[in-house]
Amino acid sequence: MKFIFNILFFLLWTFYSSAQQKPNIVFMLADDCTSWDIGVYGNKDSKTPAIDQLAEEGMMFTKCYQSSPMCSPTRQNLLTGLYPVKSGAYPNHTNVNANVKSIAHYLKPLGYKVALSGKRHYGPSDNFPLEYLGKAIGQDADPNFDNIDTFLNETSKKKQPFCLFITSNQPHTPWNKGDTTLFDKANLKLPPIYPDLPKTRSAYRDYLAEINYLDGQVKRALSLLEKYKLGENTIFIFASEQGNALPFAKWTCYNAGLRSALIVKWPGVVKPGSVSDALVEYSDIVPTFIELAGGSPLKGLDGKSIVPVLTQQKKEHKKYTYGEMTTRGIINGSDYFPIRSISNGRYRYILNISSEVAFSNWVFTEPFFMEWEADAKVNSNTSKLVKKYRYRPAEELFDDDIDPYNQNNLADDPKYLKVKEQLRKQLHVWMEENGDKGIITELLASEHMPAKRSGFPIVIDTTKYQSKIMKSARHINVPVDGYYTFYLSGKGNLEVNGKVVIPLNTKATSNTERYGVIGLKKGTHSIVIDNSLPDAVRWSGPETILSNL
């Protein structure tokens, strides 16, 4: 009995000791920060001493990318390990599909306490069962460092491993935090994609001041770890999220929109001051954390662990990174402007699926961009930038190494035909794997956005049709050129201008909702509905206006 007791004691002690050796994980995320506007990533005007010091103590990634250049899809991609279209969270201000799991589902069974403080921007809550530590009172969605202090105190006393997400709201607009006197507006070096205009200089200065404010938050987080003597057993990760809200970054699939800073400090494991050129994505974070926590690799996730890169067992990670953007649901966004992108680490191919439509977003309402448009009338260089931002060709190809701002489109250059075709083919493979149907996926974006569902789309009352059995033609007026989506339930069919948009499906039930898409010119169009359908058909388009039927 004594022998058996000793064996059991040894096993329990071994398990307990192993649990104590599990590393804590802190992931700190910025909000709308272009990676190269951080000091260690090359901006000599930026003042980011804490982030720069973090890079000296850890590994800095030069080719980390996210899968969408806006907040909600990015954060849900980060927390689920799934590409946005696959999870359902591809528009902004949206929810993942009901069956999607997130990081808390994977780490809690491994003994981890999983929490988040600051900006959430994910949903529904049941899919993200993280302990929420709140946001700072009066500080937008910024982290609540008092609550973080309490959390670290409790977990350190219990010696329980934890995974903590600290999600800042900086430097998201409005740029009203930080000390602007630290920056000489007149002598700031503007990126070459910005015209040198007064309002642009002011905006850029205010933005850099807010990055400095963010740097102070990074310093505070690191200080709290040291306060509770957690630094040596904590892996600290900083990421910059998508690019800023100035043109050619956020809301685009250009290099500045998808590229992210990523710095990992892992005491005793990651070589201080190391730099990795491995291609990595935000989708890799969940698999990485699972491995760090002692879990086994999971099938079905879109990323893979970067631990072999951190330990310098491998120098390469992925062959491609991917990005997607949908403008449905963003402030002042084009009703539809789906963008898809792929990069092999050097060349970036971009597919603008509806290039006939003008690109639009929040930027176009801002004073600094209005100044661009005014200057464009007299300055040819500014005019080129404005036109390039608003109107896009169907295909774009850039060499990110020599053209990081993506201004020299190589898509029509015969020398790069082979590169373009290879990337285009791989992009379509990725889209198919994710169930991404391009324009149809774009038009269905609103169905994933709870705030947009009310009153969407328009209903056509089929009780006004002449026959319940025979087909009867009616007419609709569409206000603008564009793609229009028709939805119906049941097995019937729908035709527009004599073209079948939704075919007959005899296996469908009254609860089966189907849809079809057709491009229509402004004006009156004939619609025929098989009246074996239920009482209504719905449709939506660039402007949800319907003439009397």
The amount of helix comes to: 25-40%
Query: CATH homologous superfamily of the largest domain, by name?
Result: Alkaline Phosphatase, subunit A
CATH architectural group of the largest domain: 3-Layer(aba) Sandwich
Shape: globular
- Please report the total strand number as a whole number: 21
User: What is the overall number of helices?
Assistant: 14
Would you tell me the overall average pLDDT? 88
Poorly predicted regions are 1-20, 465-470, 544-549
> How many discrete domains?
3
CATH class of the largest domain: Alpha Beta
Walk me through the structure.
The protein has three domains: 20-317, 3-Layer(aba) Sandwich (Alkaline Phosphatase, subunit A), CATH 3.40.720; 339-448; 455-540, Jelly Rolls, CATH 2.60.120. 28% of the residues lie in helices and 20% in strands. The chain contains 14 helices and 21 strands. The strands form four sheets. Strands 1, 2, 3, 4, 5, 6, 7, 8 and 9 form a nine-stranded mixed sheet that branches. The protein is globular. Strand 11 and strand 12 (347-352) form a beta hairpin. The chain is an alpha/beta fold and 549 residues long.
